[in-house]
């Protein structure tokens, strides 16, 4: 991305949790970096800069999404790097982290190179990749993690594929930590999930949907935490769905283990009750659980047990959802609701502005080991300007993602991204 | 000009899950699940079915109610009893019947359920009778077909089998009278995988049954089943103690492989209904089974064939109940059908 002309964002409320900042400021951007943040920046200094009036608006660091599947390479009929990074950038997401379960799997440097080439040609936002933890994600042989790191992978993961052999898992954790790689785990026991598609409970029983018990997630977390305690590896647990999981993570953090966690934003709003119309847009894995789980997840963000909120973006073509519920493909196209849904929690006073913005910017950056997600002088100029009093409704027509599969169609929001800036350039 | 085959707009949203079964006048348009239907509608189905039993006992077993209508039996799972009784019911109402057996059909070539429905809809079907392995398949069909078409659920996954439940209610009513409030009904067997049990539980509750019990080991019970309004028993003797009605469910042999049960023998010893164990129920208790029965697995032959068994009466009642539901739903949809024909000219 080429360098751009200077910008000055005037009198926006700048919220930058990493620097403990929440005040009305001018932000001066030049050569793709933040050059100055001050109460007022002189016209003289800002000569030739394009001025943006942000009075009454909110300025935050660009959102960093810990888990977005862009479907390229392999499933380009669902979405592409180009289509999804346009959607992301317009939704205020400036950096996306892609799990390795593409086709082919990111378990060789050639695949990383291929993706990097696509990114260079087509991407409208920053993209970072996780490499596979095991070869072909099969859970049998370690991948060439050092080479993957060299090629640009910033962490390793087995994505949604389980590692049932605990010896392989232990060695994978040991090997990853030897190379200072964070391991990203999406906890799921395939035996307990047993091809289920809904939370095991009263609603699934009534609807006759095969259930996935809480224990499918929590037994894996409990097992993995024992290994982490022994090895001391750095592990991030992604997409938590249940209160049981939160309590295990909390205990581990109290014991001083280096574990972090995130939650998909849709888990903070929907529950098993939303399945009662067999709405296949509510088919997600892990499944929507009970109201109590949803509330525990919300409070875990406020209490810092869960550090980040992500989109868990999984775009699909329309036909993927036009099946009876169990036969429909799971996943939500979530890029465009990540920021507005999270900010709903601020309106509802579940989170403070600082907590919400940190969970979207500075802490995911820290988890990924990126020097991003803050507005320090000298930082890359990735910012979002938000209009906090703009009522709008999510409709397929105003979605930019190629996947229109979301249960939030028709929902009203009051925070809208007005302008995204990536590398100091205005995103149209 | 209305395009009969146009896709409904935004089919995944808006429509109410339960009320989708009723038209704007509150009449039955589709029959997908018992849940959400009031006792008035269930009683109307039973009364209508009772009238049709007289047709079925005549020498000429045919009435011209649905002459000129086309009913498509779309079965994605094997079935003998359900499909043949739906077929007989349609024929006795003078409808034309199309039987689609999915093992020889297009879906084995990769066609989706939706495309199958649209193709059959283009052949001017008035009613789909659908059995499918996925829970929610009948609701899915009802939400996507043209508005003049009725959908009857002949079993979807583990979710519902409403005509089976209604033929069971008819059988109980014939044997035990119209007032269910004094009855104690026990359902024994694989509740977890049973759409029949779920529909029976809803029907029995809607008809104000005194006490409903489910009896099975925990491996065959779904989570929070008591929230559907039943008492849970793990022990057969306690479960059928003083019951007026004992409903046995079929045990599928695949259940042994899933580590749900140790062996057929142990299941039979613990949960089999035999000439000995039936003594725990009331002396005049009736024994029911939705079929097909596994003799010596869940029920002893002498009980299945014995004086308390009403299993074959259930089968006969199946035809009457299916005639009742077909005539009621196509009756409710008659207006839409006529308007549609007018538009097409």
What do these coordinates show?
- The complex is a heterodimer of chains A (428) and B (345).
- With 428 residues, chain A is α/β, with parallel strands linked by helices.
- Chain A has two domains: 7-59 and 380-427, Urease, subunit C, domain 1, CATH 2.30.40; 61-368, Metal-dependent hydrolases (TIM Barrel, Alpha-Beta Barrel).
- Helix content of chain A is 29%, strand content 21%.
- Chain A contains twelve helices and 21 strands.
- In chain A, strands 1, 2, 3, 4, 5, 17, 20 and 21 form an eight-stranded mixed β-sheet that branches. Chain A has a six-stranded parallel β-sheet with strand order 9-10-11-14-15-16, with helices on both faces. A three-stranded parallel β-sheet of chain A has the order 6-7-8.
- The two termini of chain A are 15 Å apart.
- Chain B has 345 residues and is of the alpha/beta class.
- In chain B, helix 1 packs across helix 5 and helix 5 packs across helix 6 (195-206).
- The longest helix of chain B is centred in the last third of the chain and has 22 residues, at 311-332.
- Classes of the chains: A alpha/beta (428), B alpha/beta (345).
- Chain A binds chain B through residues 200-202, 204-211, 213, 276-281, 319, 321-327, 409-410, and chain B through 11-13, 15-17, 35, 112-114, 132, 134-137, 139-140, 144, 156-160, 195, 198, 222-225, 227-228.
């Amino acid at each position: 991305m080429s360098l751009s002309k200077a910008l000055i964002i005037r009198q926006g409320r700048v919220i930058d949790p990493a620097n403990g900042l929440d005040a009305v400021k001018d932000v001066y951007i030049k050569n793709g970096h933040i050059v100055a943040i001050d109460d007022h920046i002189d016209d003289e200094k800002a000569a030739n800069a394009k001025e943006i009036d942000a009075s009454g608006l909110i300025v935050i660091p660009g959102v960093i999404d810990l888990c977005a599947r862009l479907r390229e390479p392999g499933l380009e009929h669902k979405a592409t790097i180009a289509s999804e990074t346009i959607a992301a950038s317009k939704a205020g997401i400036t950096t996306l982290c892609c799990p390795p379960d593409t086709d082919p799997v990111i378990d060789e440097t050639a695949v990383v190179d291929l993706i990097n080439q696509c990114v260079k040609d087509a991407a409208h936002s920053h993209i970072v990749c996780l490499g596979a933890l095991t070869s072909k994600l099969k859970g049998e042989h370690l991948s060439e993690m050092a080479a993957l790191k060299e090629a640009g992978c910033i962490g390793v993961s087995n994505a949604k594929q389980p590692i049932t052999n605990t010896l392989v898992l232990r060695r994978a954790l040991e090997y990853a930590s030897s190379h200072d790689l964070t391991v990203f785990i999406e906890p799921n026991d395939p035996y307990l999930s047993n091809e289920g598609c809904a939370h095991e409970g009263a609603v699934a029983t009534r609807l006759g949907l095969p259930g996935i018990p809480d224990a499918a997630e929590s037994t894996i977390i409990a097992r993995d935490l024992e290994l982490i305690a022994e090895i001391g590896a750095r592990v991030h647990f992604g997409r938590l769905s249940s209160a049981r999981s939160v309590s295990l993570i909390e205990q581990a953090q109290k014991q001083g283990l280096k574990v972090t966690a995130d939650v998909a934003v849709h888990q903070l709003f929907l529950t098993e009750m939303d399945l009662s119309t067999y709405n296949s847009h509510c088919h997600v894995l892990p499944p929507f659980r009970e109201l109590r789980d949803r509330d525990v997840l919300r409070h875990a963000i406020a209490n810092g047990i869960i550090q980040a909120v992500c989109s868990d973006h999984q775009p699909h073509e329309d036909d993927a959802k036009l099946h009876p519920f169990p036969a429909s493909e799971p996943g939500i196209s979530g890029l465009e609701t990540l920021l507005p849904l999270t900010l709903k929690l601020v309106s509802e006073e579940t989170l403070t502005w600082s907590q919400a913005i940190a969970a979207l910017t500075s802490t995911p950056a820290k988890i990924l080991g990126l020097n991003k997600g803050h507005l320090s002088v000298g930082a890359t100029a990735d910012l979002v300007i938000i209009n906090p009093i703009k009522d709008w409704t999510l409709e397929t027509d105003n979605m930019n993602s190629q996947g229109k599969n979301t249960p939030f169609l028709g929902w009203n929001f009051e925070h809208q991204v007005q302008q995204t800036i990536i590398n100091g350039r205005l995103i149209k | 000009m209305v395009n009969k085959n146009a896709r409904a707009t935004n089919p995944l949203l808006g429509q109410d899950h339960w009320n989708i079964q009723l038209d704007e006048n509150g009449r039955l348009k589709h029959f997908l699940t018992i849940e959400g239907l009031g006792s008035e509608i269930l009683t109307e189905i039973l009364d209508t079915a009772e009238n049709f039993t007289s047709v079925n006992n005549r020498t000429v077993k045919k009435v011209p109610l649905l002459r000129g209508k086309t009913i498509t039996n779309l079965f994605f799972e094997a079935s003998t009893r359900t499909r043949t009784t739906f077929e007989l019911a349609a024929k006795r109402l003078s409808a034309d019947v199309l039987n689609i057996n999915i093992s020889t059909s297009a879906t084995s070539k990769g066609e989706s359920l939706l495309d199958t429905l649209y193709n059959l809809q283009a052949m001017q079907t008035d009613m789909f009778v659908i059995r499918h392995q996925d829970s929610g398949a009948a609701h899915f069909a009802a939400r996507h077909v043209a508005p003049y078409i009725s959908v009857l659920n002949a079993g979807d996954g583990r979710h519902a089998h409403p005509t089976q439940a209604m033929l069971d209610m008819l059988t109980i009513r014939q044997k035990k009278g119209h007032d269910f409030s004094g009855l104690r009904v026990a359902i024994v067997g694989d509740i977890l995988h049973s759409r029949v049990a779920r529909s029976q539980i809803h029907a029995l509750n809607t008809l104000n049954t005194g006490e409903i019990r489910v009896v099975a080991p925990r491996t065959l019970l779904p989570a929070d089943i008591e929230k559907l309004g039943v008492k849970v028993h793990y022990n057969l003797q306690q479960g059928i103690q003083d019951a007026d009605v004992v409903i046995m469910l079929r045990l599928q042999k695949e259940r042994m492989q899933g580590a749900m049960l140790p062996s057929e023998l142990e299941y039979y010893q613990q949960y089999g209904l035999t000439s000995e164990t039936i003594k725990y129920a009331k002396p005049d208790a009736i024994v029911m089974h939705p079929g097909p029965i596994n003799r010596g697995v869940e029920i002893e032959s002498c009980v299945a064939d014995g004086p308390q068994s009403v299993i074959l009466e259930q089968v006969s009642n199946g035809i009457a109940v299916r005639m009742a539901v077909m005539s009621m739903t196509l009756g409710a949809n008659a207006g839409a059908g006529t308007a549609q024909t007018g538009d097409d000219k």
